[in-house]
Structure formats: structure tokens, C-alpha cells
Amino acid sequence: MVDKTISMDAGPYQAGDHDESDEELEQNEAWDDWRSDDDGESEPGLICLFCDSTYESSETLFDHCRSDHSFDFLSIRRVLGLDFYASFKLINFIRSQVAECKCWRCGLVFNCKKELQNHFHETDVFEKEGKFPWEDDMYLKPFLVDDALLHSFAGNEDEDDDPVSVDKEELMRELMSSGALEEIRVDNELITEISSSDLDVCEKNGVHEGPCVDGNASKCSERIMTKDSVGDLVIPPQKQKDKQLRVSFANVAAKEIKIVNEDYFGAYGSFGIHRVMLSDKPRMDAYRGALLNNPSLMNKATVMDVGCGTGILSLFAAQAGASKVIAVEASAKMAGLATQIAKDNCLLKEGDQDSEEKASSGVITVAQCMVEELNNCIHVKPHSIDVLVSEWMGYCLLYESMLTSVLYARDHWLKPGGAILPDTATIFAAGFGKGGTSLPFWEDVYGFNMSCIGNEVVEDATQVPIVDIIETQDIITESAVVQAFDLTTMNSDEMDFTSNFELNLKSVCQADDSANSKSQIYWCHGIVLWFETGFTSRFCKEMATVLSTSPYSPRTHWSQTILTFKEPVAMESASSATEFPKSAAVGSVQCPAAQIRSRLSIVRSSAHRSIDISMELTAISLDGRKHSYPIQIFSL
């Protein structure tokens, strides 16, 4: 920090200057207090990675490791571009290897720690391609109980005494990913529209000489990035702190997403869910029919199966005559089983994948990774896939958000004009009556009235969607299209949408238990959603097919998604000539609605792989009067 004083000889008193100086002085005092508080803190004893020496700071510990054990932690982090979690894993990995008297770099095993320490050598150059030995998530668990170093090593990045060198490409990636590139704060001044070309100017000229924010060239040159003799960009402390805060938040979000992904793909390691899906006859018939009954599409085709699970769709593709099938599965357990299943059925491509002489007659290659990371697992030429197939649909179609992965695969590997199966998807809606709720069950439990429980269950259902089967006799309105998707052209942003649609009573309402036969009033208790996916004649020229999860179609494991109203809406047929008082609220028994106009929004939730649904309702009477209901929010 630069000490600032106020000179009494500086000239005539100016209120603005005085206020500004006072403010700067107060900021400096607060900053000095903060620094003195930090200086008073001492880190607990930190144990060396390779011996029993302890140190008061991670800085001195890493200096010791560099000089005595030929291990330069900070250099390795910088060269390999390791983030906080990768560095965290590296520390635990090294401790685990040393505990086994094993060299962390070359893997040699020794009889004792002394021999190991005598063996230590300069770290070889790491290849940035492929996986590092410490990338396993097991190393996120501390190897030593209460290892203080794990809570201290990141502190080296926050030192105020010296600027911190960072790799230019890494900085650009982080700024681009965090959205900070267009707006960066430097010493409380705002600089906008910073581009990569600005950074190139820094690298070429040593100091950025663009327009100064406050007109003071000397201050500006101190604040803007400079270049050291090594060629790395040097960032002033405050900017480094801001960047680290952004990166820290991004790391936390990435970690949460990673945990959700691991839980998600781990769940698909359960055989029970695969039995349910394989036993889903409408599901299996649709995919099997599309793959086996369209020879002009499948014969000699190169196929990619995204999220292969057991590999059943890949097996169908191979059976249909595909020349090559790439089955992508993120669950390690299921990828291993899919490989074994393909091998047991003589369909696994083994040996050198690029050599027909060494390879087996099989056509299936299983890649254990998320499709977004496929190039880290196997090499697939861009836009080389003839047919992209995936069973990506979740409850309410979009739950699980796997569609984004399918679109990613389409954009990176599908040939121009290539087929995507299915190629269309549509969400439908209809209104349901009392029978679609749990109220009838609780009203008569072995002759006893337990409707108080039913009322609470229904209250809960007004906030959380219910995934269940709706019987056709409980549907009281005509169906309406909510949203249609063309998977050949859509982008991931279209997964977030708002749709307006109208629900009208069926011409012949069959929900007898929802109606008052005397007045022909029907009570609509909510909206039920379902979806259909199409394997259309655009690609399936010999035989197109549709997979439907409609209440009017054979049941599937997706069931339907039920959104319950906070209060039911009374409806009457448009053909009714009954007159009702104009003072009564539309949608009540005194003035039933002829139509329900709905506005439904479905968006991807901040909770990864979840969706949020908002529902707005307006009841419209025969004479055009309207009554709007409070908006409802559901989280799936």
C-alpha cells in the first residue's frame, strides 16, 4: 500500500478534495486494519509432503520441498494449469504414495522412506494429454486427518506483496467462462470491452497503452497488466483477488455439478432401473423398430449411441447392419457391463481400432465418459457420424437435461444431413378431474373417512409435480400441444420456454365421477403433461414410428407428470345454455368456466439436471368474463 498524507500547503481549501482525501484515508486505515488482522493469524503446523518436517506457512513448506525434495509445487500447478481441486488431489495423491514408500512420479517402490528420499529426482515434463494419476476422485478425501496444508496451499495465491504470474491462455479461459471478459474492475474503476487483442498488446509492448480511465497515465500504467521477463502476464493484487473470487465461485459451482453428475450416472449403475427400461415395451418397440426396419438408414452406417446404458440400442444398430457403433456411457460400471455384453454377443470391436487386420469382426466400441469429454477418451473425427441415437428423455421430457448432451454430440460429430433418432419431440397437456388426485382413496379407507390426509397430500402436490399414471376416464379436457421440438435444428436454449394454450372440455366428457350430473359441471383439478417422440419419415423412410407416453397409449416407465391446482376450477360444456350470475367468480360453481387458458413455463433449474415449472391459469366463462388464479411454481 502507498501511504498518503494531506498537505496543509497544497493550496486553497476545496471541499471536494477534502472529502476525497478523507475517504481515501479511511479506506487506507480500514485496509491496514484488515492486513494487520491477517498478519496476526498463524497457520497451524504444516507437515512436509515427503518427510516429517513441519512449517508455519505453506510458502516455507513448498520452498523446503523444492530445495530438499526436488518438488516445485507452484511450478507444477502453473505448468499443468491445475485448479484448486486438482491441486487438492495432487497433495493427497503424493501423501498416499509416500506412505507406501513409492515414488509419486515414476512409481518405484522402496523399502523405507530414507531410500525413497534418496531417490527423489527432478520432475519430468508432464504431457498435458491424457489423465494424470491423481485425477481419481478418491483423492478428494484427505489422506491425513486434519491436514492443515489442504486449507493453506491456496493462500499462496492471495499474497499482496508480489504480483502473481498466470498463464495467459488460462486467464482468458477463466475470464471467458465466468463472463468477466466484458467487464473487469481495476482499482474500483470500470474497464469494459477488454478483448484478447488487448492482452496481445500487453504481451508485445510490456504495458497496455490503451485509454486511461481516470486520465492519469502513471496511475493507469500501474493498474493495467504488465509483462515480466518470462513472458507471463503479471496481475496487480486487487485484480488477482477479484479473479480468484470469480474462479472460486466457478469452482464451487463446477464441484456441485460434478457431484450431481456422479449421483446421476451412479443411479444408472443400478440394475433395477435398467430392468424397468428394458421391460418398457413401448420404449423398446419404438427404438427397435426404428433401427431394424429402416435398412436404407442403417446399412453400413456409422452410429453413435449417447448414454448407452446396457448397450441395447448399440446392439440393435449392429444387428441392423451398422459398420461401426460408438457407444458412449458415463457410468463406469455400466460402460464395463456394456463392453462385456457386446463381447458376449460377438459384437465388440477389439484390437487395433484403426487396423482391420488386427481388429475383430465386431463393430461396437464402448467409451466410458460423458459425451462432452469424448475426445479425451477416444478420437472421433468431427462430423463423421451417420446416425445419432439416444434415449435421452426424462420425466416431463426435459427432466435430467440429457438433451443438451445429445445436441452437443449432434453439433460435433453428426454429418451434415445425418440422422438423429428420435428427430422430434412434443409435450402435450390436458385437464384432469378429481379421480386424478388421491382424494377418492382417502375419502373411503375401508369405510373410514380420512380426507384430512388427502387434503394435505393434495396441498403438497400443488408445489411438487407428481409422476404417476392418469387413467383416461379422469381426463376431462381435450389435449393441447404445449411445445414441439425439432432435434435436427434446435439449440439448448430452446429447452427453456413459455407456452400458452387453451383447455376445453371434451365434447363427450367421460369423467363421470368428476361431474355433477344435474348441472353438468365438471371440476378440473390440474393439468397432466406427457410427451411423444417421433422417428419420422424424414430419416425412417421404410417405417416411421412414434413413442408416446400419453394416458391414451400403453403405459411406459415415464408415466405422466401431474401439476395440481391450488383450487379446482369448475367447468361447463360450451353447449350449455345455463345462465349464471355475473357477480360470481368465473371458475366457481356459481359461474363455471367454458375454457381454461394456461401459460406454462419450463426452465432448467439452478439445481443441475432439474427443471422448474411455473403455471398461470385464467378461467374464461361463456360470455367472455375472466378470472385469473395465483401463479404456481413447481420444482421437479
Mean pLDDT: 77
Q: Report the principal-axis shape.
A: globular
Care to count the β-strands? 24
How many separate helices?
17
- What fraction, in percent, of the residue positions are helical? 25-40%
Major sheet summary line: 7 strands, antiparallel
How big a fraction of the residues is strand? 15-25%
What distance separates the N and C termini? 51 Å
Low-confidence segments, given as residue ranges, are 1-21, 23-27, 29-43, 155-168, 177-235, 353-359, 510-518
Q: Radius of gyration, Cα only, in angstroms? A: 32 Å
Sheet/helix structural class:
alpha+beta
Q: How would you characterize the overall build of this protein?
A:
It comes from Dioscorea alata. This is Protein arginine N-methyltransferase 3 protein. The chain is an alpha+beta fold and 636 residues long. The protein is built from 17 helices and 24 strands. Strands 13, 14, 15, 17, 18, 19 and 20 form a 7-stranded antiparallel beta sheet that branches. A 5-stranded parallel beta sheet has the order 10-9-8-11-12, sandwiched between helices. Strands 16, 21, 22, 23 and 24 form a 5-stranded antiparallel beta sheet that branches. It is globular. The two termini are 51 Å apart.
Show the helix and strand layout.
Layout: H1 15-40, E1 46-47, E2 54-55, H2 58-69, H3 73-80, H4 84-99, H5 113-119, E3 164-166, H6 168-178, E4 183-186, E5 189-192, H7 196-205, H8 217-223, E6 226-227, E7 233-235, H9 237-267, H10 271-278, H11 281-292, H12 295-298, E8 302-306, H13 312-319, E9 324-329, H14 332-344, E10 364-368, E11 385-389, H15 403-413, E12 414-421, E13 424-432, H16 439-443, H17 451-461, E14 466-468, E15 480-486, E16 497-504, E17 515-516, E18 521-535, E19 545-548, E20 560-572, E21 595-604, E22 611-620, E23 626-628, E24 632-635
Parallel strand pairs: 8-9, 8-11, 9-10, 11-12
Antiparallel strand pairs: 1-2, 3-7, 4-5, 6-7, 13-15, 13-18, 14-20, 16-21, 17-18, 18-19, 18-20, 21-22, 22-23, 22-24
Helix pairs in contact: 11-13
